[in-house]
Structures are given as structure tokens and as C-alpha cells.
Specification:
Shape: elongated
Radius of gyration: 15 Å
Number of domains: 1
Helix content: over 70%
Length: 78
Amino acid sequence: MRPNPPRMITVVVAVALMIIGLALVFYQGPTIELVRSVPLPKDVSSQVVSLMGEQMVAWAALAASPILLIVGSLLPGI
């Protein structure tokens, strides 16, 4: 089996997932305050803060990043 290099969009999405996961794991307090300070509608802001409060989302994003790169290199077109 000869793996192909993943497409650029796959790499960008994987890097974005890694950054989001790391931000949620290590900087959860300051990140939540930053989201609260951004002028978003109140219901959107509360949904984002409640989503960020769950550690499972952070670890899932960190796990999805290398998995996406592996799948992108094994399956053509991803």
C-alpha cells in the first residue's frame, strides 16, 4: 500500500482541530472569558460556553486531528 499525501483542506482542518482542542484543554478559563466578551447573541454565546465547558469535546478534537490525517493519506480524495 502506498499512502498518498493528504489534500491541503484535510491538513488545514486537522490543524484547526488540533488548535481548538489545545485551546480548550489548556486555556479553558481565558478562552471562555474571551467568548463571553465577543458581541454574540446571548443564546449563541451560552451554547458556545457550555460546549467549551465539556472536556470531552477538547479531547475528541485532539484525537480527531491525527486520525483525519491518517485517513486522508490512506483514502484518495480526502
